[in-house]
Amino acid sequence: MSSNQNYDLVIIGAGPGGYVAAIRAAQLGLKTAAIDKRATPGGTCLHVGCIPSKALLDSSEIYELAQTKFKRHGVEFDNVTLNLPNMMKRKGEVVKGLTMGVLGLMKKNKIDYIQGAGRFLSKTEVEVEKADGSKETLTAKNMLIATGSEPVELPFMKFDHEFVCDSTDALSFDKVPERLVLIGGGVIGLELGSVWRRLGAKVTVIEMLPRILPPMDGECAEAMQKMLKRQGLEFKLGCKVTGCEKTGAAGSVSYINEKGETESVECDKVVVAVGRRPYTSGLDLEAAGVQLDAMKRVAINERFQTSVENIYAIGDAVEGPMLAHKAEEEGVACAEILAGKPGHIDKDTIPNVVYTWPEVASVGKTEEEVKGSGVEYISATFPFMANGRAKAMGEMDGFVKVIAAKEDDALLGVHIVGPRASDMIAEAVCAMAFGGSAEDIARICHAHPTLSEALKEAALGIDGRTIHM
Ligand code: NAI
Question: Rounded to the nearest 10 degrees, how much is the dihedral formed by the CA atoms of 43, 47, 49, 53?
Answer without folding.
Answer: 160
